[in-house]
Amino acid sequence: MTDALFTILTDAATRSAHTVHGVLPARVVIPTSQAAVGAVMQQAAQQGWTVVPWGGGTHQQIGAPPTRVDLVVSTAALTGVLQHEPNDLTISVEAGMTAGALRAYLATHGQMIPIDPALPDQTTIGGMLATACDGPRRAQYGVLRDMIIGINVIEVNGQPSRAGGMVVKNVSGFDMMKLYHGSYGTLALITAANFKLIPIPPARGSVLIGCADTSAALRIVDTLSQSQLTPVACELLDATIARTVGIDAPWVVAIGCEGPEPAVERHLRDAVALAPSTDARRAVRRLAEHDALWRTIADASAATPLADGELLLRWATIPACVGEILTRIAAMGLQVGGAPVVHVRASVGCGYVRLTGLSTAQQDAWIAALPEVIAVATTDNALAHYWHAPAGGADVMQRIKAEFDPHGRLNPSRFVV
Fold first, then answer.
1. Which domain range does residue 125 map to?
2. Helix, strand or coil for residue 173?
3. More exposed terminus of the chain, fewer Cβ within 10 Å: N or C?
């Protein structure tokens, strides 16, 4: 079926490439403009179709499988830079642009958005916003909700909606941008977003500290948090991930530094000094090697591809409780299995655990044992739970969903509401 603004694709290859958690869509559309997205959504509303937004496909295994998929709307063709004000340190880009492409574009101007998701050459801006994904540097810079200053969406009925603008200090109206962050495509389809930028730091470096056990690693993290050092990243890596970054140790504390050369030199010197010489190994990485190191660490949280029986859990707590959760994960590994592979944004209090070779019952046991889990990625369509009940505000979330999508056609059944 062809429309003046878009073409509905129903061939087997395109549909198969856009399978949503094992559910084959009836049709796929790849609009080439924001106006075309509006026309697509308007037709979908007229037909009563359920709609699943699709960015790079890197987070489609998160959440429950959809009840049905009448239409996948891909943002693959929405890849343009709409407006860039280098002197004002702001940019507006379409939602289908990948994090890697945006990073490369901004680098030519000496600027950046300090977010480093897994698989940056596949992960799109819209997908990052919709899934609230993070990266190692959130320890210093936060997540995308801290950087966004404007957003364009298409509502379920095809109407365009906009919030914010191209200025950093915009205080008019409700802060709707934050509402779409982490909504998993259940409220509207994100088509563009505006961000504040920062200059690329002139120097960067890393310290890797190998530790004999969890307690030693957490002591280093605690000492670092009480010091005057302000690293941009502080990750706790288990032995499996440690080997991928060249350190043979049960645990590694990975510390990333950025800024003026003297500040980076001080961070490297003082961070290395945190390691007790009796049970730690040290390594310093600079520039290109530093960048490759942190790409490897960021990719450890990739939610695709997943093998059968593989489970990725994203969890969050307060930093003081990280040790208790790591103890519980170790105990679960012995009791339930799954050979847990763990890495933690230690100074923030969030982390990931990857498990393999699990049955449906084992996956359910892992999810039940970790109420701190905030997102589940799996290929298993038979799990009892994909989301823990929200600690509070579920009724508010349900009312918001009903207001934005009264007939439940956007990503039906996939999110907690």
1. 81-199
2. coil
3. N
For residue 36, being part of any structural domain is answered with: no
- The model's pTM is 0.94
Q: How many domains does the chain have?
A: 3
Beta strand ranges found along 155-232 (DSSP E): 160-164, 189-196, 198-199, 203-211
Q: How far apart are CA 333 and CA 194, in angstroms?
A: 42
Confidence (pLDDT) at 4: 58
What rounded mean pLDDT belongs to the chain?
93
User: How distant, in Å, are the alpha carbons of 14, 330, 399 from that of 337?
Assistant: 37, 10, 39
CA distance 295 to 278: 29
Task: Please tell me what DSSP assigns to residue 25.
Answer: P
Alpha-carbon gap, residue 158 to 153, rounded angstroms: 9
Please list, in sequence order, all residues whose beta carbon lies within 8 angstroms of the beta carbon of residue 365, skipping any fewer than 6 positions away: 332, 336
Mean pLDDT, to the nearest integer, of 178-206? Answer: 95
Q: Do 87 and 111 touch, CB atoms closer than 8 A?
A: no
Residue 366 in any domain: the answer is yes
Number of residues assigned to the chain = 417
